Amino acid sequence: MSKRFSCLAFLAVVTIPLSLAAQAPSLAIQVDHPTAKVSPMLYGLMTEEINFSYDGGLYAELVRDRTIGEGWRALTHWTVVARGNSVVSVSADEKAGPSAAVPRSLKVSVTAATETAPAGVQNDGYWGIPVRPQTEYSGIFYAKTDSAGLPVTASLVNDATGATAASATVSGLSGDWKMYTFKLKTGEVAVTANNHLLLTVPRPATVWFGLVSLFPPTYHNRSEGNRIDLMEKLAAMHPKFLRLPGGNYLEGDHISERFEWKKTIGWWIDRPTHPSPWHYRSSDGMGLLEFLEWCEDLKIEPVLAVYAGYSMMQEHVEPGPALEPYIQDALDEIEYATGDAATKWGAERVKNGHVAAFPLHYVEIGNEDWFDKSGSYDGRYAQYYKAIKGRYPNLQLIATAPIKSMKPDVLDEHFYMSSEQSFSDANHYDKTDRGGPKIFVGEWATREGEPTPNLEAALGDAAWMTGMERNSDIIIMASYAPLFVNVNPGGMQWETDLIGYDALASYGSPSYWAQVLFAKYLGTEVVASTLSDAGPRVYASVTRDENKRKLFVKVVNASSDAKPLNITLDGATKVTREATFITLSGKSPNATNSITNPKAVEPVERKISIAGPRFTQSFAPYSINVLEVSY
């Protein structure tokens, strides 16, 4: 967290003597009067394949279209390279592939080439391939050739200069499909994303590439894992869960395009890939096991969404016998995550390289089924509920739309709002029926700014989060959406996304920092508090951690004026006179971060003195504030 000093930050931490601010608005806190338990799962992550979130984003694969898909765009990111007088052509071979799941390949036909004038093919990656000094990259390819013993050289080459950052030669290709591995180690090279992967041969031959992959170092050194910078940003959010594999990505536009988890496990040549609803093809490198390992790496729980018989183009499966195969698929999926080696699908997970079962307490039945015009969700949910509870009675099952035939364990509600809607509806859950069901705010965001939110959006988000915190007895989980966006041209399908990145770098938006602050500074109990006479666009929530004797006071001032508040800490027997004060603010609600200016809006932390259980604190305009007090 940034600790830079600014005049604005100084304004935020001035403590005004109480006698000089007797008319100030007030925040009365009853420290010894807890009103509810804070859900231990309150803040988490929601993810799906949108805005190149997995491929070209979190999933660290550097080769774009590592397998050859169908259609005229199959070779968009593969182009020929002919050095000197070499001659080469490339095509998609529809009849030659390394496996049934990967039936096509890249056919590279070299009719003239030498050691000094090789020929081959290059891949441009996801808007470039990032290269850093003293870094080792791990590569593989599946290949066969009509020229026995053919060597293939893999190189990382700078787009602008043609300089080679690293290269390695694989020898001994044959007429049979085989997997070959290589390592590319850079020296003292410039940090740049303007590179491509080059595969060349030194003599005339035809070579087929069925799958080509290249990975940089990954988070926790997990083989074929995730980008380090993005995982570090997620870890800093202090999440408790990951909702997976995503919303629309779970359903697909059509039933045949849903997330079929059984086609996403095992080695890559057993994964056929599939179209995502956001109009590009998913490599399925981020398959079910990778999602679960993502949770493991962050030490969080999965919230597993299972396909429930509805796809977005109004295709659905009627409740009854036709739905049974899909329910069985969901039961198998739960078994894959939680079963031991004595179970069929637990044994499959072990075979895939993960012996230990994963913790699982929540399963979501479908996604946004209120869009299903057939009205079939009530029956579909009930059928899934009966089957899953019959085998896993302790699982909490989440409904994605209101149902009448029964009370679900949890109801998933989604909100995409303007900032004014977030401000005006910040008390949305204050009067919610405590009789249930519990609420999962599975997707929500204040949509202001693009590709990532500006400060106005962050203020709206924070106002909304004060309402969720005050009501975290009924709000058991919440997750902002979407999580990621690739900021390159063509990388965004949905504007206002939490974390932005390109091939080389990433940044957190003001809304990202709001998420960090709210999750990091969170107690275990909500305490009674009353905000009075503060005027519009001022919001507060207060939680405590009794074991740590910490009080977390959150104040959002979305107005254009500084707001002094008389704060009283009734029932606190001993208040430490030094407190920690963290402020996220800017001079304008349009202030924002970007890939070129990633730190324009960041939290500022200070130690301040307070007068005891009664003091006055001023909160800067356009600010999100956390006051941590020991008592």
Secondary structure topology:
Layout: H1 7-13, E1 15-16, E2 26-37, E3 43-46, E4 78-82, E5 87-93, E6 105-112, E7 119-123, E8 136-145, E9 150-158, E10 164-173, E11 178-185, E12 195-201, E13 205-215, H2 228-236, E14 241-244, H3 248-251, E15 274-275, E16 281-282, H4 288-298, E17 301-306, E18 310-311, E19 315-316, H5 324-338, H6 344-351, E20 362-365, H7 377-391, E21 396-399, E22 410-417, H8 419-424, E23 438-446, H9 455-470, E24 475-480, E25 484-486, E26 499-501, E27 506-508, H10 510-520, E28 525-532, E29 538-545, E30 550-557, E31 563-570, E32 578-585, E33 604-609, E34 614-619, E35 623-630
Parallel strand pairs: 2-31, 3-14, 3-24, 14-17, 17-20, 20-21, 21-22, 22-23, 23-24, 25-26
Antiparallel strand pairs: 1-34, 2-28, 4-7, 5-6, 6-13, 7-12, 8-11, 8-13, 9-10, 9-12, 15-16, 18-19, 26-27, 28-29, 29-30, 30-35, 31-34, 32-33, 32-35
Helix pairs in contact: 5-6, 9-10
Structure description:
The chain is globular. The model is unreliable at 1-22 (pLDDT under 50). Strand 15 and strand 16 form a beta hairpin. Strands 1-34-31-2-28-29-30-35-32-33 form a ten-stranded mixed β-sheet. It is α/β, with parallel strands linked by helices. The chain has three domains: 7-35 and 522-630, Golgi alpha-mannosidase II (Immunoglobulin-like, Sandwich); 43-60 and 221-414 and 470-475 and 485-493 and 503-509, Alpha-Beta Barrel (TIM Barrel), CATH 3.20.20; 78-215, Jelly Rolls (Sandwich), CATH 2.60.120.260. Helix 5 packs across helix 6. The protein contains ten helices and 35 strands.
